[in-house]
Amino acid sequence: MALSDQQNHDQPLKIIEIAEEEKDGKTVHELKLNEENLKKIMLHPDVANNAVMIVAIAGALRKGKSFLLDFFIKYLEAQMSANWLGDDDEIKGFQWRNGTAIVTYGIQIWSKPFIFENKDGKKVAVLLMDTQGIFDCRSTKQDGANIFTLSCLISSVQIYNLMHQLQADDLENLEFFTEFVKTVKRCSDITADGRSRIMLLIRDWGCPEEFSYGDEGGSRYVDMQLEIEENQPEQQKKIRRTLKEGVLDLTGYLLPYPGKAVATEKLYRCLVKDVDKDFLHFVKILVSNIFSKKNMATKQMNGADVRGKEMVDYIEKFVSVLNDGKCPSLETTVEVIAEKGRQLGITEALALYNSQMQQCLDKSEVSMKKLEEYHQKFKKHAFDSMEKYPRIIVAEHEVECFINLGNKIDDAYKSYQSQTTEAKEKIRKEKRIEFVKTYIVPISIAGSAIIFNYFPVIACTTATIGVFSWGISKYF
Ligand SMILES: Nc1nc2c(ncn2[C@@H]2O[C@H](COP(=O)(O)OP(=O)(O)OP(=O)(O)O)[C@@H](O)[C@H]2O)c(=O)[nH]1
Ligand SMILES: [Mg+2]
C-alpha cells in the first residue's frame, strides 16, 4: 500500500465530494465543492495566469486508476526525462490500495502543478485529477454521472479507465459529453476549441495477438467497437453514429496485466521492480504520448485557453448546474460557459477602454470637450473588442451584454471627467464660492450692522449681499 506521502509536501487535494443532504424530507446526494482547495490549486502563482491542462482519469471503482496516476506524477516530477523510472522507486502519490474497499472519494487534484511549454512555446500548467469510481454501490447512478460529466467538462484529456474490454454502456457514458460538444459548436462559430481528447484505456488487455498493446492496437479496437451492426439495438446504433461524427478525439490504448504482485497481493509498499516489465514498458509509452508537446492540449472554452483563475469560476458554475437538475441539460451547461465568456469579454473590453483613456490623460492636460471625444472613440474600440471576443454567443443575451458594457464604460468615464483641468478648475471655483458664503457674507452683515448702527439693518444687509454677489460673480 502506498499512502499519501507523509514527508512530501505535495498531496492530493479534494475539490469535490459527494455530500448527503436532507431536502423536503428526502435524502439527496449533491456535489460539494471545496473552494479552499480549489483556489489553492487554481490560484497558485504558476497556474492562475497560465493555460491549464487537466489530465483526468475516470471509470469504475477499484480498477487501478489512482495507481496509474502515480506513474504520471513520477514522469512529470522527473521533467519527462528519459530515465524517469528506477527499479527501486516507490509508486506513491494518489492513495491506492489492494482489496475491495473504495479508496478514492470525490474528485482530487494533485497539489503540485507541472509547468511545461507546448509546441507554440506557451506555458501550460499541467494538473493531474483522480476521481471516485463510478458505479459504486454506495453512490447513486446520478453521482457517477455527475462525476464523469464534470471530469469531462473540465479536463483536456479524459482517460476512461476500463477493465478487460469496452462494453455497450461505456459508450453511453460518452454520449452526453459528445452531444454537449456538438451543442457548443452549434451555438457558436468557435473553431478554435480543439476536440476534447478522450482515451479509452483498457486494463488487463487479454487479446494482444488480435489487437496489440499500446495505441495502435487500442485505436483499431475502438474503431471496431464503434462499428454499427444490423442486430444492434437502435439506441446503440445512435450512440455509435454520434461518436463516429468525430466530435471527440477518441483514442484507445491497451495495457497489459501488471502482474500478480500488484493485482492481488496485499502490498503495503509497491516498488517499480514489483511490477511486470511489459506493463511498465507500455506505461512508459503511454505517458510519453499523453504529455508529448504535440498532445499538450490546453482546455479551451469560449474559444480561448482557460487559465487557472477562470477555471475556478467554471468549476463552481458546472457544479451548481449539475446539482440543480436531475440531469444537466445541454443548453444550461452551454449557457454557463457562454455567460462566463460574456463576463471575460466585458472585462477585456473595459480594460482596453481604461488603458486607452489613461494613456491620453497621462500625456497632457485634456479639456472636457477633448475628453468626450476620446471617450466616444475608445468606447467604440471597446465595443469592437467585445464583438470580436471569442465566446459562445447566445442571441437573447447580446443586447443586455452590450448595455452592461456601456454602463461600465460610462461609469469609468465619470471618474475620468474629474481628472481634467476644467473639472479641477470647476472644483476650485466651487470651493471659493463656498468660502465666500461661509465667511465673507456673515462678516459683511455684521459689519453693516455696526456701521449703520442697526439702522435699517435688513435693507443694508440686502444691499451688501447684492453688492457681494455681484462682486463674486464678476470676480469668479
Ligand atoms: N488487475 C489489475 N490490478 C491493478 C492494475 N493497476 C493497479 N491494480 C491494483 O488494483 C488495486 C486498486 O488500485 P487503485 O489504484 O486503488 O484503484 P482505483 O480504481 O483507484 O480504486 P478506487 O479509488 O477505490 O475506485 C490495487 O491493488 C492495485 O495494485 C491493473 O492494471 N490491473
Ligand atoms: Mg482510486
TrEMBL record:
- What residue stretches are annotated with the GB1/RHD3-type G domain? 49-295
TM spans (from-to): 451-472
> Which GO terms label this protein's molecular function in UniProt?
GTP binding; GTPase activity
Q: Which UniProt keywords apply?
A: GTP-binding, Hydrolase, Membrane, Nucleotide-binding, Transmembrane, Transmembrane helix
- Record's protein name: GB1/RHD3-type G domain-containing protein
Q: Which InterPro entries match?
A: G_GB1_RHD3_dom (IPR030386), Guanylate-bd/ATL_C (IPR003191), Guanylate-bd_C_sf (IPR036543), Guanylate-bd_N (IPR015894), P-loop_NTPase (IPR027417)
For this chain, the family text in UniProt reads: Belongs to the TRAFAC class dynamin-like GTPase superfamily. GB1/RHD3 GTPase family.
This protein's species is Magallana gigas
